[in-house]
Amino acid sequence: MDGATVEVVRSYLVAAAEEMRAALIRTAFNPVIYEVHDFGISIYDADLRLVAESTGLSRFLGANDYSIRKGVEYVGADTLRAGDVVLMNYPYWNAAHAYDATLFAPVFLDGAAVGYLCIRAHWMDLGAKDPGYVLDSTDMHQEGVIFPGTRIFRAGEPAPEIVELIRFNSRMPDLVLGDLHAQVAAIRTGERRLLEIFGRFGRDTVAAAVRRMIEDGEARARAAVEALPQGSWTAQDWLDDDGVTADPILMRCTVTVADGRFTVDFAGSSPAVPGPVNLPFGATIATARVAFKAITTPGEQTNAGHFAALDVRAAPGTLFHAVYPAATFTQWTGTVALELIYKALAQGMPDRLPASSGGDVPGFMMVGTHPDTGQLFAVSNNDAVGWGAAPDHDGIGPANHLCQTQARNTPVEVLEAKTGMFFERVEMRVDSGGAGRFRGGVGLRRDIRFVTPGEFLSVIKKTRSRPWALDGGLEPEPNRVVVFPGTSREARVSTKRTRVQVGDRVTLLTAGGGGHGDPAGRDPEAVREDVAEGYVSVAAAREVYGVTA
Q: Which InterPro entries does UniProt cross-reference here (predicted)?
């Protein structure tokens, strides 16, 4: 098949995924979907091979692959009919926690399945033990109602008993059911577009183009792996705790590039822990895929071929391969693990890898009763950090963490309108980036005052250990969350649910990125520009860089 036809078909498939994305954003009820873009959208061929994705949460890159294979296996491909939509959130199959609801549907043409559509998106409540986020669960059954692969639509019609089961098991049923129907609307949009593509080009042409796309993706990814330095490198890092005990949790990763394979092995990491930071294996694979794609074929639309040279290993029953009934709700483990992979690679590829970013997604949420509506609210935000400096340029920041580059933060206006939070200050943190010949990006400061009572949830797992630097650069201060600052109750916390009253305050200080190279080698004019821009203080310019600004 000629390359022009392949590219035209590819563009049509990607456009279909992007139109599904637009439909979801425009119809969702929940700001974590329509503002933050906490979702993943994928299109598959009849053999469940990924052929197109929309932009969405980076950690969902290819994660739907694991989910849809498990879901179709459980339901049985031969039992699916046109118009069916299946709901799945069983974490060990779903590659996510229980509130990331995955919906998938077959697409039929002339009585045969020609493809599948898959959308995962974050729902705000499915009856877990606590409203909002669950920070201290000890097994799956505390984390919400579980659907292992349940038809929510049959032959195009909703299954009322399943809809009612969701309604009566959610604290926010209107919000959750609104998002359910938004996902179904996006699936129906994708179904129409996929059938139009088959109608325009014909089944044989589409199949041949998809086969060529996947072959080309695999060839380019394998060529990129062959061009990498060959070897094996190991790194380790720590999570603050698991939300149940105060013990730090060891994460270890070995990356091996050899014989045309790129292997990520988490052997040596902690066994599964009591709290909800255990990662389903599908989520571990998705984390490794983000790193692999960025190293090999970062500028290409993703398909199944791009991951053919990647192997991911983690023993069942460990931190990176949760098995029933391990708690999995707080999946910040995957965020930290992404940079752990880069930390290992940086040993063998120091000219290609940046230093660590702020190291985590500093998430927060407020749960309470809205004074205007009298209804429960649970609204969250994932905050920005500084990115690590590279061998030839400064890190950017504040910016979303590497695992969420396609996501957005929740605007202050939305947070203030929908919760009891008032933001007294949102600004860049001076001196928060690690110093170096190239400086790490800076983090962010937020000062929050509460205007209604409720619960404030901080969700972060990197407040005890610093982001790592490279080649003599300096490590910045870690993330910090301070509740009740300036009072007798002042305390530093990481992942914690805190009861707040009117007038209480919280300060969030997100970390900057690690520095790269000796700070003494930084261009003095660059230091003076940093001072002028508010990234570096006059004192730090003098004491760290030896520059008078």
A: Hydantoinase_B, Oxoprolinase-like
User: Which DSSP letter does residue 514 get?
Assistant: P
Q: What phi, psi does 368 have (nearest 5°)?
A: 180, -165
249: tokens are 């949790």
Strands, E, within 370-416: which ranges? 376-382
Q: At CA 82, angle to CA 78 and CA 85, rounded to 5?
A: 90
Q: Nearest 5°: phi and psi at 180? A: -55, -50
DSSP 8-state symbol, 516: B
The answer to whether residues 304 and 217 touch, using CB atoms and an 8 Å cutoff, is yes
User: Quick one: pLDDT at residue 457?
Assistant: 97
Q: In what order do the strands lie in the sheet with 421-428?
A: 421-428, 444-450, 505-509, 480-483, 491-493
Report d(CA 388, CA 431) in Å as an integer. Answer: 14
Whether the per-residue pLDDT at 11 is higher than 90: the answer is: yes
Mean pLDDT of the chain: 96
96: closest CA among 341, 282, 276, 274? 282
Residue showing tokens 């990197």: 462
Q: Cβ(24)–Cβ(183) under 8 Å?
A: yes
Give the Cα separation of 283 and 294 in Å (integer).
17
Tell how far CA 419 is from the center of its chain. Answer: 23
Torsion of CA 206, 87, 121, 22, to 10 degrees: 40
Confirm if 339 and 333 have CB atoms less than 8 A apart: no
Listed in order, strand segments (DSSP E) in 317-420 are: 363-369, 376-382
Parallel/antiparallel/unpaired status of strands 231-239 and 85-88: unpaired
Give backbone dihedrals phi and psi of 292, rounded to 5 degrees, phi first.
-60, -45
How many CB atoms neighbour CB 440 within 10 A? Answer: 38
Backbone torsions φ then ψ of 390, nearest 5 degrees: -100, 170
Q: Which stretch of DSSP H or E encloses residue 358?
A: none
Of residues 491, 434, 483, 494, the one with CA closest to residue 460: 494
CB contact at 8 A, 121 and 37: no
In degrees, rounded to 5, the angle at the alpha carbon of residue 55 between the alpha carbons of residues 50 and 58 is 85
Given this model, what pLDDT does residue 407 score? 82
pLDDT at residue 58, as a whole number: 78
* Contact between 502 and 477 (Cβ < 8 Å): no
Q: Are strands 491-493 and 363-369 parallel, antiparallel or unpaired?
A: unpaired
Q: pLDDT per residue over 507-532, tens digit each?
A: 999 999 999 999 999 999 999 999 99
pLDDT digits 0-9 by tens, 314-349: 999 999 999 999 999 998 899 999 999 999 999 999
Residue 347 phi/psi, 5-degree rounding, is -65, -35
Burial readout 320-339 (b: 16 or more C-beta within 10 A, e: otherwise): bbbeeebbbbbbbbbbbbbb
pLDDT tens, 17-27? 999 999 999 99
pLDDT surpassing 70 at residue 544? yes
